[in-house]
Amino acid sequence: MLDAIKTYLNSTVTPGEAGSQFWALLYIVAITLGISLAVIAMNWLERKILAHMQIRLGPMRVGPHGLMQPFADALKLLIKEDIIPANADKLVFWSAPVVVTMTAFTTFLVVPFGRTHAVTDMNIGVLFMLGISSLGVLGIIMAGWSSNSHYPLMGSLRSSAQMVSYEVAMGLAIVCAVLMTSLQTGTGTLSMIGIVQAQQAQGVWFIFKFFPLGFLAFVVFAIAMIAETNRAPFDLPEAESELVAGFHTEYSGFRWSLFFLAEYAAMLAVSSIAVTLWLGGWLRPFPNLLSGPAWDLAFSLIPGLSFLVMAAGCFLGTMRMPKIVQMRAQAIGLGTFGALLGLLGLVMLAPAVRDRIQDIFWFVAKVAVFMYLYIWYRGTFPRYRFDQLMKVGWKVLLPIGLGVLILTALVGMRHELLAVVVGGTR
Amino acid sequence: MSLSPFLGNVFLVDLVKGLSVTFHNQSEKERITEQYPLQRPVVYERYRGQPRLNVSPDTGESLCIVCNLCALACPEQLITVKGERNPVSKRKEVVSWTYDLSRCMFCGLCEEACSTDALELTQDYEMALYSRQGMMLDQAALEKGQAPVRYAK
């Protein structure tokens, strides 16, 4: 047992590469739990941040600052009556949320949270992620069709049309990044870990490579990924004003919560693709510019310190709570939460731990930025009309993606091209 | 197409402006929601709410002299004041006073008409009741003012 843990701690490859089924299983469980926890946190954060953007307070009553609200909601959803419409196709109706959730979670098999922190390293990683996450459309169409109702059907058709058309622009943007991986070695890679290592070897995140080409590809991807996950301002399949709730109108209780879980898991998945492809994955900021042991130490302290800052924020919130009897329990709760965060931060400062979790922290921090952007967009932009959505997809993003792809290829091959031109004239 | 709107579209200037608005809205200073039962809102000085019939702070007698000006001023005619002259003090004293709060629109004309500052629309805002009967306020209710029911756990 001890040996197993020791060999794991010293390993430099993912459990999948090492062929260790036990550790792979452990990783799968940990990632599943982590994603579920992240979805719970996202639920709270989204309601809170959205409320603040609309000059409201958001959930304040269940727990300190509404921290227990997602748990209360989950409980409510679990004990809700489970309704299947009378004329629904029961088998398909039953399996649709399962398909959606499964596909959303399966994508995380290849997401590299660190060099060793991934279930496995597939040589077709990006392709695998795109393929599996596109399969989610199937679940959405199943949900819309089997509900035997107008709104879900229209919602699911919109959703599939939208996801299929944005897949094209997304694919072009991804190919740009994959092209860049081949610059130094001559052979590109689709492996998620390989892409991050290529950025490490070239000493630049791909978002800054061939400026503005890498950045443009990233922007195309960032827009396409919002449409891909059916989020505002491209949330037409769920447009409340027109379609009630889109493809999950007829769903309730636990099945509905599965759709919710899948939506947020898919958001996390596409954000982690973006982070891996353009923002250097698990690499800390400026690994080459600010190198050396001193900088390494400084950056490795950031995870723990950021948790300590969050803990301090919680204590500040406790101090600023109204000093009345009704708020005492909430103040104690917030203080306990702060103490928990502080403890976690202190554990993360320990040398053995901070070397192991550093890469996970940077990856999660970058994904968190994308999650904030999702909420920010939702709080700001009005919904697009369907023809506008299609216009943006086919007439704007697709040409830009194609152009950037061609330019990236030309710039990447400039020496060879020059040699051909010079050789031709000679 | 002129150049500057085109460039604005290319660099998504409008979207960035919108994003900055929502970002700044997150500041705590901007927040206007109150947590009502825990934090009681501060109403404006000119707010007109629950009517009250003032009594003289020294003697505890009603300031109302039954001049009927408020009842005349009321556009809804919801005030009825009846009084009779006290033969000893030669003053008019209230016999019955009713104020139908259910019809009141809080225009404040009665308050302005009152020559002795007896009738006043106070800043109390918790006036919800379970029945319309409770909104017929008599002299005792008007002088006491309506204490809001406090619900405690």
Describe the structure.
The complex is a heterodimer of chains A (426) and B (153). Chain A has 426 residues and is an all-alpha fold. Chain A has a domain at 86-283 and 353-421. Chain A contains 17 helices and no strands. Chain A has helices at 2-10, 15-18, 21-53, 69-78, 90-106, 125-134, 136-146, 150-185, 192-202, 213-228, 240-243, 253-278, 293-320, 328-349, 351-380, 386-412, 414-425. In chain A, helix 8 crosses helix 9 and helix 8 (150-185) runs antiparallel to helix 10 (213-228). The mean pLDDT of chain A is 85. With 153 residues, chain B is of the alpha+beta class. Chain B has a domain at 51-144: Alpha-Beta Plaits (2-Layer Sandwich). Chain B has helices spanning 3-10, 13-25, 69-73, 109-113, 139-144, and strands spanning 51-53, 79-85, 92-100, 119-121, 136-137. In chain B, the strands form 2 sheets. In chain B, strands 2-3-5 form a 3-stranded antiparallel beta sheet. A two-stranded antiparallel sheet of chain B has the order 1-4. The radius of gyration of chain B is 26 Å and the shape is elongated. The model of chain B has no long low-confidence stretch (mean pLDDT 84). Classes of the chains: A mainly alpha (426), B alpha+beta (153). At the A-B interface, helix 3 and helix 15 of A face helix 2 of B.
